[in-house]
Design goal:
The protein is mainly alpha-helical. Helices cover 51% and strands 0% of the residues. It comes from Phaeodactylum tricornutum (strain CCAP 1055/1).
């Protein structure tokens, strides 16, 4: 991979900034998540988003009231054999009333300013799992940690849980399937950009190791996606994304243009366009991933300009649509290119404004220490 030599950052600087950018991209965008009216709709509820903002409680047009509490997709009648819904009793404890057909609640109504959504809270679980596994991703360890976290009341504060989680726990609790067999696919809502959120962390871990390889990053990112979802399309996309993330934390400066083009070509997407407007998309990979690559091309930090990860993530927050999971993926790669030193100088609020800043700082320290000192073999068990 060709790289420019104008700026050299250490792997640790890139990794730390990637993680802060990852958490920030999610939290900044949560107020405007799934605002398909774009900026005009965002402006009505918040004005222009210029900092971490608490989501509104009610959201006109929210489809939370149409979503299935017991599995994928839209709401269905509860069976006699399912006296308690998955949402409210098995996961997202106590939140079932917020999904009521008679209400129109924001998808993240219960989050505080700067607080992360469920998918990124799961990334914290994944980071701790990697630390406990001596800096290496272990699918079995993470699967157990995932189940324990999701089934523990009060483990997170989010309102929404995506289709993949609802299907997984329906298979576990109602279907009584072994945990390895619980990932599922409804044919519509699983091959989505939120499926790249957890693999990003795994690819960062592999990229930070002195003995990590591009192939390992791809394989382990795909394996991470497979823990919660069953999709060949997502498996492939996670592998391609894992390669990009791996390269982003290497010490030499990434040739972003060629790397983005290679990623797009490997998945059959058009060439990324860094000169267009920020595209509002739904969650599906076919539209959401090209838009993510466009944003990376457009906002790649330039040390000689005023561009920054913070600037890019605010633009994403003010775009609407499926911007939360795009935000975390965008923040990770842009953060890695900016580096910790510049991030701390240009936009310290990106870090300190996060709701769980102090806890995140400790977790990032632990994760960085584990993955940068690990030299274990990375073959999957």
């Amino acid at each position: 991979m060709q790289r420019s030599s104008s700026l050299v950052l250490t792997t640790e600087s890139r990794l730390r900034a990637a993680l802060w950018g990852y958490f920030a991209g999610d939290a900044l965008a949560s107020p405007s998540h799934w605002y398909y009216g774009g900026f005009p709709q965002i402006k009505r509820d918040y004005g222009k988003i210029e900092d971490y903002t608490q989501p509104v409680y009610e959201l006109t047009g929210s489809i939370l009231n149409k979503s299935n509490l017991n599995g994928g997709g839209r709401r269905k009648a509860t069976s006699k054999d399912q006296p308690q819904s998955i949402i409210g009793y098995v996961i997202n404890h106590g939140k079932q009333d917020l999904w009521s057909p008679s209400k129109s609640i924001h998808y993240h109504a219960t989050l505080q300013k700067g607080e992360n959504t469920l998918e990124v809270q799961l990334a914290r679980v994944l980071m701790k799992s990697i630390v406990a596994s001596q800096g290496v991703f272990n699918p079995d360890h993470f699967r157990e940690a995932y189940i324990n976290f999701m089934m523990t009341a009060g483990s997170h504060n989010d309102t929404y849980a995506s289709t993949c989680h609802r299907m997984f726990f329906a298979n576990l609790v109602y279907g009584k399937l072994p945990p390895k067999d619980c990932p599922d696919d409804d044919g519509h809502n699983v091959e989505t950009i939120d499926g790249l959120v957890l693999p990003t962390i795994v690819a960062l871990a592999v990229g930070a190791r002195s003995n990590g390889t591009l192939a390992q990053a791809a394989d382990m990112a795909s394996a991470c996606a497979d823990v919660t979802r069953k999709s060949n399309v997502l498996h492939q996309a996670a592998g391609a994304w894992g390669k990009l993330v791996f390269q982003s934390v290497q010490p030499s400066t990434l040739d972003m243009k060629s790397t983005l083009q290679e990623t797009a070509a490997s998945l059959g997407f058009r060439k990324p366009n860094g000169n267009g407007r920020d595209e509002l998309t739904a969650c599906y990979l076919g539209s959401a991933m090209p838009a993510l690559l466009d944003s990376l091309a457009k906002y790649n930090p330039n040390p000689d300009s005023k561009s920054s990860t913070w600037h890019a993530l605010l633009a994403n927050a003010n775009t609407g649509g499926e911007n939360v999971h795009r935000g975390s993926c965008l923040g990770a790669v842009l953060g890695s290119q900016e580096g910790l030193e510049r991030m701390e100088t240009v936009s310290p609020q990106l870090m300190t404004g996060l709701h769980d800043f102090e806890s995140l700082r400790v977790e990032i320290d632990d994760f960085v220490a584990a993955v940068t000192t690990s030299a274990k073999a990375t073959s999957l068990k």
